[in-house]
């Protein structure tokens, strides 16, 4: 087996082992998204009115569901890379970097581990959907899975690129929150495009996460409400974003760890 | 002559925060040696290791490992080196065996070959019975030995050990060094150990002494000690910087002033105790005559104490 493939498998396996051994993370898998979903959903239920819904009355709890899926994906994927910041300070990352293996494989292995964790967590949450919305189809679940993997790869790669340049986990948290929450707020996860102010709509169209959320809606509904684009475009933008982020992460990891004059 | 395991030619390194880490260092380490890099914290040992490990490229000069450039042939260098870094490089949540399997994968090892190699290194470091324990349950000494097993897993021809016993108690340090000596003998691995501990440097075939990024002297420990003479004099005093020039003016020899005393290198060191007390008795608290140690070698060449962490540079008064 080529070393690159062994590297990817080993990094991925390690990510999963670390997750499984961390009871607090395992416990949070379903509790955290459920709590967010129910607290936000039930909290805004009365205040929310879906403008011109094609499927009739969509309650806020139902409307929010794909958005929470996206939130789970974004946060799990990004924060799986926080270990890079910690491991750069210890010798662990250095030993990985001096091994005769490809740096691209290192990026891909890390990204794949975080992606699998994020996707499994999201898909477990999807299992709740039949009690909330119109039910699941095989094609729909496959489509949702593909979107989950794309979002996972994109955001673990983005996380790696930033973790590579950040010295403290506190700094990493600060930078990620700066990125993540606005991306999520402006993705039509919390409110549909039609109800947003004109200035915000352009931002929502420019936001790659919008297409992931719309993609998730496509997978969950035969005729989804509040989507920005058709299923093919959603898939293309999600995976296009992932490809660009992997490119940036690979480029970052090829830069030296220590800056010399 | 076979190519040296390490050849460092006129290497300087400056980080972009303008800190000069190494200045025109020349160094050659023959294959099969147990070589010590001795110097206090901040003397440039870790920076030199980073260059040899291909983590950073020198600002000036070249470094080769078994003839391959660390800059332009990094892949060839990486195949042949193993590094035990100053900070532990094991994943705490994984078991020793899982850590080793992970490391093996990075070097293309898998299947039965990997399993056999893991068994072998675990026996080398005497950890076979702890293989399935998570690293965070190990004592500091055992974790260091597990880290050593990690560095050895892919059978490197050159093993770099950066302060490998930092934070270990004397028992654990001794046991770590016994393992290192055995490995050097049985596997023929060239080993380079960075340390600020005298007794560890004494175990090496040859040492290079680094101070403030410069290589100040290099040689076999016994030769370096012998160069200072059979015996040297150490004077404890409250005012070393006042006493040192006076001692030098009166008795000659080479005199260094340090925080807690004065080092006197003189052919007749032992005979000078009486005359010294006669001349400066009121300024001397105690006088010690002893054979030079590597610490004295370091102090004589670097003009500072080994544990001083780049503290006060002492002026030398030489006849």
Mind explaining what this structure looks like?
The complex is a heterodimer of chains A (261) and B (319). Chain A has eleven helices and no strands. Chain A is mainly alpha-helical. Chain A has one domain (3-254). In chain A, helix 6 (103-126) packs antiparallel against helix 11 and helix 7 packs parallel to helix 11. The longest helix of chain A has 28 residues, at 138-165. The mean pLDDT of chain A is 90. By secondary structure, chain B is an alpha/beta fold. Chain B has two domains: 6-219, P-loop containing nucleotide triphosphate hydrolases (Rossmann fold, 3-Layer(aba) Sandwich), CATH 3.40.50.300; 224-318, Alpha-Beta Plaits. Helices cover 35% and strands 26% of the residues of chain B. Chain B has helices spanning 45-52, 74-80, 96-106, 111-124, 140-152, 170-187, 198-202, 221-226, 240-251, 273-280, 294-302; strands at 6-14, 20-29, 34-38, 60-65, 68-69, 81-84, 158-162, 190-195, 206-211, 214-219, 232-236, 254-258, 261-265, 286-290, 316-318. In chain B, the strands form three sheets. Chain B has a six-stranded mixed β-sheet, with helices on both faces. Chain B has a five-stranded antiparallel β-sheet with strand order 14-11-13-12-15, sandwiched between helices. In chain B, strands 2-1-4-5 form a four-stranded antiparallel β-sheet, covered by helices on one side. In chain B, strand 12 (254-258) and strand 13 form a beta hairpin. The two termini of chain B are 41 Å apart. Residues 309-316 of chain B have low confidence and may be disordered. The A-B interface holds A 1-3, 6-7, 9-11, 13-14, 17-18, 21-22, 89-92, 94-101, 256-261 and B 13-16, 18, 50, 53-57, 59, 75, 78-79, 81, 83-91, 93-94, 98, 101-103, 105-110, 134, 147, 150.
